[in-house]
Amino acid sequence: MRVWVRGLVAGAVGVAIGLVGGGGLAGADSGEAEADLAYHGAVSLDRGRIDLRVTPRNHGPSAVADATVRLTWSAPLAARQQLPDGCARLGERVVVCRTGALAADGVGEQIGLRMRLQGMPAEVTLEIGTVWSGGVVDRNRGNDRQRVLVLDTGDAYYF
């Protein structure tokens, strides 16, 4: 168990270093190729349980080797979460996930998360945004940042 936890922490630290250490912050004018990332999907909340599906898209003109999307919740997540490969928790309300390679004018693999919040809030806000784009510049930041209000109804809210 200790090795698994160390590996998870090392992976999360590696993601955090990639996000903070420059190396392709989304929107930075690095003189590199340009892409236009966007995220669409659905999220529901039912008695503290979150079901989230996010599909990344690159409107081009250049391909993206990999990117990282940050998912920030207005309420704290439960202490224990089972996240899919390519995702890591950064703090009590933040999860980051790799998008994988995105072809120019292409759709990426869907990212699916099932998580629990601490307690059972009546509503939660989800903020979605690119934090790393592999050195590719995204000058249209309006479509890769979303804010979704999710009510505890069990209904899907699309974005």
Question: How is this structure best described in words?
Answer:
It comes from Streptomyces sp. SID12501. This is DUF11 domain-containing protein. The chain has a domain of 106 residues: Immunoglobulin-like (Sandwich). 12% of the residues lie in helices and 38% in strands. The radius of gyration is 16 Å and the shape is elongated. It is built from one helix and ten strands, in the order H-E-E-E-E-E-E-E-E-E-E. The strands form two sheets. Strands 1, 2, 6, 7 and 10 form a five-stranded antiparallel β-sheet that branches.
Provide tags for this entry.
159 residues, 10 strands, 12% helix
Quick description:
The protein is mainly beta and 159 residues long. It contains 1 helix and 10 strands; from the N terminus they run H-E-E-E-E-E-E-E-E-E-E. It has a domain of 106 residues: Sandwich (Immunoglobulin-like).
